[in-house]
Amino acid sequence: MTLDTVKHATETPDVEQPWAELGLKRDEYERIREILGRRPTGAELAMYSVMWSEHCSYKSSKVHLKQFGEKAPENDALLVGIGENAGVVDVGQGYAVTFKVESHNHPSYIEPYQGAATGVGGIVRDILAMGARPVAVMDPLRFGAADHPDTKRVLPGVVAGIGGYGNCLGLPNIGGEVVFDDCYQGNPLVNALCVGVMKHEDIHLAKASGAGNKVILYGARTGGDGIGGVSVLASETFESTGPAKRPAVQVGDPFQEKLLIECTLEIFKENLVAGIQDLGGAGLSCATSELASAGSGGMRVELDTVPLRDATLSPEEILMSESQERMCAIVEPDKVDRFLEICEKWDVIATVIGEVTDGDRLEIYWHGEQIVDVPPRTVAHEGPVYHRPYARPEWQDALQADDANKLPRPASGAELKEQVLKIVASPNQASKAWITDQYDRFVQGNTVLAQPEDSGMIRIDADTNLGVAVATDGNGRYAKLDPYAGAQLALAEAYRNVATTGAKPLAVSDCLNFGSPEDPAVMWQFAEATRGLADACQTLGTPVTGGNVSLYNQTGETAIHPTPVVAVLGVIDDVTRRTPVAFKEEGQLLYLLGDTKEEFGGSAWSQVVHGHLGGLPPAVDLERERLLAEILISASRDGMIDAAHDLSDGGLIQAVVESCLRGGTGARLVVPDGLDAFTFLFSESAGRAVVAVPRSEEVRFNDMCGARGLPVTRIGVIDGDAIDVQGEFALSLAELRTAHEETIPALLA
Amino acid sequence: MTARIGVVTFPGTLDDRDTQRAVRLAGAEAVPLWHRDKDLKQVDAVVLPGGFSYGDYLRAGAISRFSPLMGTIIDQAKAGMPVLGICNGFQVLTESHLLPGAMLRNNHLHFICRDQKLRVESDRTAWTADYVAGQEISIPLKNIDGRYVADERTLDMLEAEGRVAFRYLDVNPNGSLRDIAGITNEAGNVVGLMPHPEHAVEPGIGTGRTDGLGFFTSILKKLVNV
């Protein structure tokens, strides 16, 4: 086969090219020809096809994502915003924290172990590329029905992949979610979050500047795995062609990644890089074009110098390969020797593959012949933008009219008791310890809180006890009923979870998981959810710092529930003041904070007891969320509360059961005046938390809530070895523990 | 004067910085040691920390055992220098034949991370003198290849010579024979165990308890008194 050089492409304008097979539309292909003034070479076509894929270009979502910037609240803490590998937030004492959540949904369905493993690897390199030491990971996961045979294929593979990769990197896994719903049956959601810490002066950006600077590719050799992963896998719905796409999933080597982390951190320490970018989706195509596009000049790359695992790879394949554990650095010539020396120390292969030029083109050569000559911005940042049509689906009104508040309710204490047991044992509400115990939560020796606490918390300075907390939340059922409110509720819950542990919420990252953007109904859900999230972030003063969009999560015509997953990062000045969920001290008083209303739309009760989804989700009151957070943070700082748990799916009883089991104590609860037992126990009204207050702090705590105007209701006391809802029923801790802890192992072990 | 305790970093070691912190918290000086060196930098004792050295490829600990640094450590350990192997470090010690037996994949085949109760069976080793034989402690356990095995004769010998240093209590988390969590050599200077004392040295962090600090105070007292 002859090499398709730029010269050859100019001379043979009419050659048929496989643009459709590479996932490009006809008008996109025409635009490439227009940009170049000729047909693209095979290598150029490969680059444009992966970089203009939905996954890399955000072509369907861009017009909506703009709101995160336009509505961004004033926030002095934001050091680096959307657009870089990850956002960076100032947490004080000279420290900066970077965090981001990303999806690896499609690969994880095809090849659960490798898909999930490389999802962790990818997000960790994003964080590393900002200049930070990765310090923790979290994994929000969603699967089909817990008892479906395919879930037993997908879930254990995903969990083993996350553990197998993350544990080997030495990153504590401190939280996340596991949710089951039929809607994810053919489209599991495997999102991965990483947090990194650095000093302000260590922030690095992805840009190639300074003519004559060298382009160094380091890390693993390039192989044939993951070719076209972004265009083939992540930008298409699944039909019946699953197995044929297997080679598109990358294969991870966590040992190599661990070396890459330590090697890169040592390189940062000696200040050896002018710009850096990890190789993830779209591999070298992405790294070279993004670095060149963000820089001031051009770039020239000798592609045949790239170290290969398979010597037969074509230049197109090398450009598209998504082989893992690779980074690309821009290094000043006099620093190259030291750079290579550090790589050698860590047994990391490093190769100078090119240099920054004073031109404005990205030029790639293959054994001396030019195969790419493009303006880098047209590849990396000026891809197509679509204003996809969107329309409120016609079924939305009927869905909302199907009111969950009208479902038959338990008529007696005995029936209430039976439903409580059923709910705490249901897969979504049951303990996930069987899963999270497969992740190392202790490594690095800084873990303050981890699953099943409300947020994961990591100490970042052992001398001052400064720490950060992160929580991720999302409720696809709420979002299906009302995507605008659903996205806000996801934010509100994550925000509340961070505050419940005593940390002040600072910033947001999001992973927006939706169906096909080509369906106007899905596009409406997406538009509503992004608008809701942007509005809520503005009100709460927590900017979106970055994130990821995953579209085409659907099988045939059926899309998943719209599932915006929101991560909130908070800071705590002294981690020894953190508030855990466990009820430990008998005699401490239990208080319910916030208002409880009859809100059952999308609730765990409606799902578990009635198999129902309809009505409206709980009302959103962001000012209330902010007030609740302030009270929880003050109470933690001033030692007024010993435990706290946010109320969300499953309502008050779910939270009390979890806190009691965690602490090994019982509780006596009294239904407050004005509420019936059912609403008291199962309502999912937002803006609420339950706290345990030592008797010595009772007056001070009540006074604080009263003065700030937060409704507070005394609902009981920590006592005994049963949960006793007075006048209704009692359940022993032993019975609750069995119900809560045996479900997941029974289904999946 | 304090003791100098070396902490080894192999490629893929994870708990080296945590172990250095634990050493410092106990009051000793932590000295980083690099796998490619032969020089032990005049340390008085060595800790082989946990992790996945060389990715655990081939077999956990099997490649590290041949590193230049291990050559020196093996010689010194035979001459009486105190050596503690934690998790992957324990695996390296059995691969080096400084301790008998071997570690297989957990019987349930999963990685397991839990707060594990142990009984300290021997307080006569260099690393356990600050405990009392029979004392119960809780420290994190986290591994996938943690099932201790040896032939019956070796197990009987270990028991008879009081060389079972730690035993799992309440739950045997991985199928280890005779609930063995850690052992010592005949002289008591070399100790290996699967659970992680270095992750239980500060109140409020990790498990929240400090049950693991005794390993590091034990060795410090021994070395400084000498």
Q: If you had to describe this structure to a student in words, what would you say it looks like?
A:
The complex is a heterodimer of chains A (749) and B (226). With 749 residues, chain A is of the alpha+beta class. Chain A is 37% helix and 22% strand. Chain A contains 26 helices and 28 strands. A 7-stranded mixed sheet of chain A has the order 8-10-7-11-9-12-13. A 7-stranded mixed sheet of chain A has the order 23-25-22-26-24-27-28. In chain A, a hairpin with a 2-residue loop joins strand 2 (87-92) and strand 3 (95-103). The radius of gyration of chain A is 26 Å and the shape is globular. With 226 residues, chain B is an alpha/beta fold. Chain B has one domain (4-225): 3-Layer(aba) Sandwich (Rossmann fold), CATH 3.40.50.880. Helix content of chain B is 23%, strand content 25%. The longest helix of chain B has 13 residues, at 213-225. The radius of gyration of chain B is 16 Å and the shape is globular. The model of chain B has no long low-confidence stretch (mean pLDDT 96).
